[in-house]
């Protein structure tokens, strides 16, 4: 028998449960084995982190990491980079959902803001599907606001936006507020019909078109021109909710023709058009890791 067998944890002790999950991938796929050892070492020092291997069509071998929050994920990434010199790509944070019953986790957010910024904060909470529970005007010129907000909205830089709309004068605390029924859907980003699983996210149906438009418009900035047309689509249940197109590179094939040779001119243009159609059918868009990194960092 082991010396620890039969020991019971202290009353009130609970195993930490991850609140936020991210995909993590080495910037250089050749570094996977070395980085796997580094990951294991860090997890030994922080038992609240969960670690599982996963594979992405776009980013290769990687891990699925569970954290207590988005700040916890940022600290873990910073430690990995500083202590081991590792270069890593983190996907957008997500929260596990109970798909069978379509339940979504909520938090009760408690904010203290100066009176003059109350309108800004209310608008921010409304835009993030928040529901007001309490408002209290304090004697110090501050206002206490309580909102119930979906966890998925909170982890998407809600605190940064709160600081922005109050010029840094707001404070935020939150605690779990259970699950609610919610019309949540999975949104895929596809490039020429190929899903980019690293950019797949779960959103509320009411945000589908706006978020889809935002995703395709932003991702278009990070893709280079091809010899054929490239379609970037946001899809929900195989239905396209937003689309952007990168036009094909064109070469002036009529440059050396005589101006009067109209039939030859049309023939060359038709041949070029047909060639680009064939390239689009057989060609594959090569997307560099830099494009994923820039998109996930929300760079413009």
From TrEMBL:
It holds the Pfam family LepA_C. One of its GO terms (biological process) is translation. GO terms for cellular component: mitochondrion. Residues 102-187 form the Elongation factor EFG domain. One of its GO terms (molecular function) is hydrolase activity. PANTHER family: TRANSLATION FACTOR GUF1, MITOCHONDRIAL (PTHR43512:SF7), TRANSLATION FACTOR GUF1-RELATED (PTHR43512). Belongs to the TRAFAC class translation factor GTPase superfamily. Classic translation factor GTPase family. LepA subfamily. InterPro entries: EF-4, EFG_III/V, EFG_V-like, LepA_C_sf, LepA_CTD, LepA_IV. The keyword Disulfide bond does not apply. Residues 191-296 form the GTP-binding protein LepA C-terminal domain. Keywords: GTP-binding, Hydrolase, Nucleotide-binding, Protein biosynthesis. This is GTP-binding protein LepA C-terminus family protein.
